[in-house]
Design goal:
Layout: H1 7-11, H2 15-29, E1 36-44, E2 51-65, E3 71-78, E4 85-91
Antiparallel strand pairs: 1-2, 2-3, 3-4
Length: 92
């Protein structure tokens, strides 16, 4: 099922609209769950306090509509220095 939201729908926000919008977000996020995305992040080195960039691989675990009207993905990755599982959000 594909949700279509029109300009007219935006003028009449109601419970049905919110259900359809939630369905659209679900349709967008569901195929991405379990996929891996690569990103580069800076992490603080403990020895001297400087920041060093590391490539991380984030496994997508879910997502939601963010406050900007876009979609954010939630995921986890192992911290490149400690190996500890970390949670993150990625705006798409």
């Amino acid at each position: 099922m594909q949700s279509n939201i029109t300009i007219a729908d935006l003028d009449t926000v109601n419970a049905d609209f919110e259900v359809r919008l939630a369905g659209l977000v679900r349709e967008t996020v569901t195929p991405l769950v379990g996929r891996q995305l690569k990103s580069v992040r800076a992490f603080k080195e403990s020895s001297d306090g400087s920041y060093v960039e590391h490539e991380i691989t984030v496994t997508v675990t879910g997502g939601f509509m963010n406050g900007d009207g876009g979609i954010s993905l939630e995921g986890t990755y192992p911290h490149p220095l400690s190996g500890k599982p970390m949670n993150t959000e990625i705006s798409v």
